[in-house]
Each structure stands twice: as structure tokens, then as C-alpha cells.
Inverse folding.
């Protein structure tokens, strides 16, 4: 009777031991794949995996605390989002004088009449006020509004309906 119980106990212990080893193994594998998703540094791979290999659950706990917060995919996605946000902010133009929103192809600010762009006299493309030459046709502008960019141009009659991009 006693030997039977001892045998049973031994079997249970053996199973538990086998499970612990399998668990350990799984933890090491998981750590390896997890750190691969978060870092590109081979030393970091080795360190993280060794941590779990040596310290078992406690190593995993340490790894969990120390591991990079973002996976590489997440970091990449975040950088894309930030870039898109920046581009969007860049696209939202404001009048330098009154800070109101204006469209990119406005000649004048509709709020304060500040001149924002001028037209090339030759090809009618929109030009920045500080451009010395028309990038579309190569015409060097005559000294017009460019020298006095703050002058509120009120009656430039040729600003009809064409959109130039
Ligand atoms: Zn304005
Ligand atoms: Zn031009």
C-alpha cells in the first residue's frame, strides 16, 4: 500500500517536472519571438532569452518589465501616423498676417486682404511672393507686389476663376 502511494507520488512529480520543463522551454521560445518583434539587436535577443533561460519565471518577469514597450511594427505605424499628421498640418495654410485659415491657391487673404500669392504675368501660375523666378515658365518677374508683399491688393481684376496647381 505504502509503495503504491510512493509510486503514485513519483509519477505525479515526474509529470510536474516534465510540465515545468516544457513550460520553461515555451517561455524561452515565447521570449525569443517577442524580443525579435521588438528589437533588431542580436545582443538583446541573447540577453533576453538568457534571462528567461537562467531565471525561469522570474527571468520572464524581469523581461516583461524591461522589454521595449512597442513592437517594431507598432513603432513603424506610429511613425507613419506622425508623418501623416505633420503633412496634414503642413497642408493647412494660415495667413501670415491674421493667422486665419486660407486655401493654398488663394491670392489674397479673404479676412485681412494680405497678399499671399501672385500670378506669373506670362503663364498665370500661382507663385510664392518670395520666388525670384517663375518655376513654370522661367520668367523673372517685374517688380510688382513682390517688393511690397504686405500691400493689401484690393483691385487686381484678373484674379478670375482659374485654378492652377
Ligand atoms: Zn489674413
Ligand atoms: Zn510663369
Amino acid at each position: 500500500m505504502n509503495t503504491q502511494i510512493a509510486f503514485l507520488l513519483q509519477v505525479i512529480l515526474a509529470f510536474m517536472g516534465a510540465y515545468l520543463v516544457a513550460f520553461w522551454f515555451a517561455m524561452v521560445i515565447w521570449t525569443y519571438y517577442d524580443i525579435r518583434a521588438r528589437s533588431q539587436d542580436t545582443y538583446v535577443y541573447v540577453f533576453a532569452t538568457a534571462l528567461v533561460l537562467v531565471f525561469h519565471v522570474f527571468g520572464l518577469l524581469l523581461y516583461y518589465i524591461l522589454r521595449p514597450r512597442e513592437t517594431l511594427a507598432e513603432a513603424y505605424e506610429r511613425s507613419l501616423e506622425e508623418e501623416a499628421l505633420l503633412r496634414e498640418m503642413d497642408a493647412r495654410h494660415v495667413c501670415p498676417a491674421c493667422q486665419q485659415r486660407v486655401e493654398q491657391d488663394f491670392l489674397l487673404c479673404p479676412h485681412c486682404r494680405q497678399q499671399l500669392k501672385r500670378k506669373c504675368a506670362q503663364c498665370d501660375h500661382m507663385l510664392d511672393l518670395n520666388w525670384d523666378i517663375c518655376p513654370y515658365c522661367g520668367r523673372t518677374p517685374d517688380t510688382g507686389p513682390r517688393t511690397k508683399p504686405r500691400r493689401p491688393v484690393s483691385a487686381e481684376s484678373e484674379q478670375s476663376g482659374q485654378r492652377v496647381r
Remarks:
- DSSP finds three helices and four strands in the chain.
